[in-house]
Design brief:
Blueprint: H1 5-14, E1 19-21, E2 29-32, E3 35-38, H2 46-56, H3 59-68, E4 70-77, E5 81-90, E6 93-95
Antiparallel strand pairs: 1-2, 2-3, 4-5, 5-6
Length: about 100
């Protein structure tokens, strides 16, 4: 079952991660103390990465993303804080 972005960010927050990577063909990955670590979630499909990115984008951000193929934004998650998120198209898929 696909996790939500708040669920992914909660795991990263609890692990004191500095970064989260969402990429097709891999489960979500987080950087903890400089080391990449897979999260205990399923491998993501192209549709999964699109759905996750759309969960946190406003309509204006979605439009700019579709035009430019990338978007750097700040995301606030209640109870967790504010995170920087870079979303980009990579080989026809969406990556964060």
């Amino acid at each position: 079952m696909l996790p939500t972005m708040p669920e992914i960010l909660q795991v990263a927050h609890d692990a004191n991660a500095s970064d989260v990577h969402i990429t097709v063909g891999l489960p979500p990955i987080m950087r903890v103390y400089g080391r990449l670590q897979k999260m205990d979630f399923p491998v993501l499909t192209i549709d999964d990465t699109k759905e996750l990115s759309l969960q946190v984008m406003t309509p204006g951000q979605r439009e700019r993303f579709e035009e430019d193929g990338e978007y750097d934004m700040s995301v606030a998650v209640q109870g967790l804080g504010r995170y920087r998120l870079n979303v980009f198209k990579q080989k026809g898929a969406v990556a964060m």
